[in-house]
Structure formats: C-alpha cells, structure tokens
From TrEMBL:
This is Rod shape-determining protein. The chain crosses the membrane at residues 12-32, 52-70, 77-96, 181-199, 205-224, 236-256, 335-356, 368-389, 401-420. It is found in: Membrane. It is a multi-pass membrane protein. GO terms for molecular function: lipid-linked peptidoglycan transporter activity. Its main location: membrane. One of its GO terms (biological process) is regulation of cell shape.
Length: 430
C-alpha cells in the first residue's frame, strides 16, 4: 500500500464532513440573508453570497495545500510563522485600512484581509511548540511567564486597532494551559478580578471593599487558627487582599479611561448602571437594538421556522450585521428551534471530535494544538450564540465557518486542517 493511500485512510473524514456541513449551511443562510430580487446567479460578485462562494472555493485550495505539506513543517517553522503573524499585526499601524473605526484590515483594491484571523493559528502553533519542548515545565513560574507572553502578545497588538472582540478570544488559551498543568490559582485569580470588576461597577468601591475585607480577613483567620505553620500562607493571603483592594480602587479609572465609550455603554446596558431612564433608553436603542431585533427574529421562528427565504425579519433587514456576527438569527427565524438545534449539535459534535482526537495524540505538540483548536472554536461558538440570544453583549465575534468573510473562513480553515494533518500523522513517530 502506497504512502499516499495510507495517509488518506488515516485522515479524520468525519471532522471534514462536519466542516463542510457547517460551511454549506452557513452559505445557505448567507444567501438567504443577502439575496435580492435582482438575482443574477450564485456567482454574482456584487452580492455577499457570491463572494462567500469564492471564499469557500479558495478554502478548498487552502485545505489541499495544508494536507500536502509535511506535518513536521508546522512544528519546525512554528516560531517563524508566529513572528510573521506579529509583524502583520504591527504593519496595520502603518498600512492598515480603517473600517468602522477599527484599523484591522489590509486593503488591496476592494479586497480586504484581516491578519488577526490568521494570528490565532500562528499563536496556537507557537504555544504548542513551546509547551512541547522537553525543557518546558509549566509548573515553573518563568515558563508560565513565557507562555503568557506568547498568548498575550497578539491580543495586545489587536487592542491597538482597536478590536476588543478578536482580542478577547485569546482568553481561551488559558484553558489549554490549565489542561497542560497550569496551577488553577490563575483561573481563580482571573475569575476573582472579573467578579470584583463587575461588583465594583454595580455597587461602588466602598461596599465592595468592605465585603472584600470581611471575606478576606475571615478566611485568613480560619487559616491562621487551623495551623500556625501556615503563617507564610497567611502573609500571602494578606498581600493578595491588599492587591484586591488596590484593583477595586482602580476599577473606575479603568472603566472611564481605558475602555472606550461604546464599551462603557454596553456594560451600562447589561449591568443596568445608568439610573436615568431617559439615558438608559437611549443606550438601549443604540447598543441593545441588535440584540433585541435578534431575539425577536429567533423567537418568531417558532419550532419549525418560517421556511428558507421566508423570514420576514431577515428579508426586512431588521437585524444589523446579519451576514456576519448575527448570522445565527437567520437560522433561528427560517429554520426554527429544530434547525437551530441541528446547527448547535453539529458544532458540539465537531468540538467533541477534536477533543477526542487530541487526547489520542502521541505527540505533545499535536495534543496541545488540538486542545487549542477546540478552545478557540468553543469560545467563538459560545460567545456568538450567547450574543444573539441576549446572554452576552455584542462584542463582534463571528460564528466559525458560518459568518460571512474570507479572512474568518480561511483562518478557521487553516486552524482546523492543520490539526487534521497532525492527527493523520499521529501514528508516525517524529
């Protein structure tokens, strides 16, 4: 049996099938959301569905190229790929094209390219390379710092564009680090800081400091009383308590000087921070409009939906960004609860499939890469779905393989199919 035949047999065709099902269903909904009465063919490049079909065709070429390259290439040149990705993000400051207030694209005529979509795969490669190094031990603080630096460098550059949604995705990597042995204290610190931030905005810093002091001192007393030998931990706890109070005092500065106005408005809407009903209603009409229209559209679909191209909210352009961030509203209105459940099932099935194959990897580089892919896809999927049904504020995170856009589709395709290539090569010892 030839080497090529063996490779074809080892490819995870089920994941590929799920990929094309999601891409295909996504295109059907993009078509429904963007088709007009002046229809002139599915390849009409003046329409979004025509452009997306070209992006899908280009993705097939990308898939063939990825699967044709030796698996060792991705590990061997991961650092170089990562540096190129960082340089592409830096280049936006000079050559970037401003769209809707964000300099996130390179413009070549009417064609635009968003490097942040490709930086995800580059970061996954770099992190997998570092963690799989025989000299790396994630329990060492210095190695933890290097891992954090690899993860945080791209989102810091992305925030300068500014693009908070794309930067937020990199939080998913910390779950991968946890899977690889990162002490859980970091997750607790992150969760605590987010909780303190929200409570401080909601209640004010005085009440939050009082609550933190009561809880912190009570915990320290219990530790100290239980065992005198734990005085070192008590000192650490006191230091953490002081740091927490310092963070609480800095919340207002962060909120009013670091966050942009549209970020503040979204927090105000979700947390109900504005007491003036007139101002709150104005914010709701501005930043709650998308979510309200999305919820109405999805709710109007009922169980079976209104039918393909029969969605009145979809055809009436009630939901902004319905081809991109809010594409799932088309599914909910035209295909109903049943169709939405099928789409969610396909995503969950793909995620579970990736996790299953990642756990089977003999090579640590491949395993870390697989878990990173699953984490990023899950973050996008969960936040996007939560956004369109009102669980999360609008943050500009697309639905993988569904939302319109060449950069997004190509980025997710590269991310997934590098893992499929690594997985197909897992029997071979590197």
């Amino acid at each position: 049996m030839s080497r090529e035949v063996k490779f074809v047999k080892k490819i995870d065709w089920l994941s590929i099938l799920l990929y094309f099902l999601l891409v295909g269903i996504g295109w059907i909904n993009i078509y429904s959301a963007s088709v007009t009465e002046s229809f002139s063919g599915v390849l009409d490049m003046s329409q979004l569905y025509g452009k997306q079909l070209v992006f899908i065709g280009t993705s097939i070429i990308i898939i063939i190229l990825i699967l044709s390259i030796e698996a060792k290439f991705y590990e061997r040149f991961s650092s170089i790929i990562y540096v190129i990705a960082l340089l592409s993000l830096l280049g936006l400051m000079v050559f970037g094209k401003n769209v809707n207030g964000a300099t996130s694209w390179y413009g070549i005529g009417s064609f635009t390219l968003q490097p942040s979509e490709f930086a995800k795969a580059a970061t996954v490669l770099a992190l997998a390379k570092y963690l799989s190094d025989i000299q790396t031990n994630i329990n060492y603080f210095s190695h933890q710092l290097i891992s954090f630096a690899i993860i945080l460098a791209p989102p810091l550059l992305i925030m300068l564009q500014p693009d908070a949604g794309s930067a937020m995705v990199y939080m998913a990597f910390f779950f991968v680090l946890y899977r690889e042995g990162l002490p859980p204290i970091y997750l607790w610190i992150g969760f605590t800081l987010v909780l303190l931030f929200i409570i401080t905005l909601k209640l004010g810093y005085i009440y939050t400091i009082i609550g933190t002091l009561v809880f912190g001192l009570a915990s320290i007393f219990i530790i100290f009383k239980k065992e005198l030998k734990r005085r070192r931990k008590t000192t650490l706890a006191l230091t953490s308590l002081v740091a927490a109070i310092g963070f609480i005092l800095a919340v207002n500065y962060i909120f009013y000087n670091v966050f942009q106005q549209h970020h503040r408005d979204r927090f105000t809407l979700v947390l109900g921070l504005e007491k003036d009903p007139v101002k709150l209603e104005k914010i709701r009409k501005t930043f709650g409009f998308n979510t309200n229209q999305s919820e109405i559209a999805i709710g109007s679909g009922g169980f079976w939906g209104k039918g393909w191209q029969k969605g009145t909210r979809t055809k009436g352009d009630f939901v902004p960004e319905q081809d991109t961030d809010y594409i799932f509203t088309t599914v909910g209105e035209e295909w109903g609860f049943a169709g939405s459940t099928v789409v969610i099932f396909l995503f969950v099935f793909l995620l579970l499939r990736i996790l299953h194959r990642a756990e089977q990897q003999k090579n640590k580089f491949s395993r870390v890469y697989g878990y990173s892919v699953a984490a990023i896809l899950f973050f996008h999927f969960a936040i996007n779905i939560g956004m369109v049904i009102g669980l999360f504020p609008t943050v500009g995170i697309p639905l993988p393989f569904f939302s319109y856009g060449g950069s997004g589709l190509w980025g997710f395709t590269i991310l997934l199919f590098i893992f499929i290539k690594l997985d197909a090569n897992r029997i071979n010892e590197w």
